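Entry type: protein chain
Record version: 2
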Amino acid sequence: MIMLASGWLLLIPPIQNNKGTVDDKRPYTEWQQHGAYDTARECERARDSLEASVWNYFTNRKKEAERWVTRIETLPKGSENWDDKDWDMVKQYGEYLESTSQLAALHTANLRARCVPSDVVFSSQPKEKERKRE
């Protein structure tokens, strides 16, 4: 994390890899820093922008998947009209389905991002002397 004298941090909660769920109950020191800002207003604008990009991404992926399904459904497998592009679409659609839960966890984490005063994050970290003893 970037050390700030004062300001605001946009933090994203960690994802439990074994479950693929967002763990927003973890201490802020375990969250990923997405950005650092001078004011709460700047941080909130960045959070809103992050949220909008998540929704845009999912909307575009859904439209793309719908196009793949429509194309796959309209051409019977083995049809002479199938070409390499169609097989690539089937492969990409399969990869899309496999990655959906992972992407959903990542985007859920982004949607749960929070703007936090930097002193709240850094005051909760162990002091240097305490860290050396551990």
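Comment: The two ends are 21 Å apart (CA to CA).
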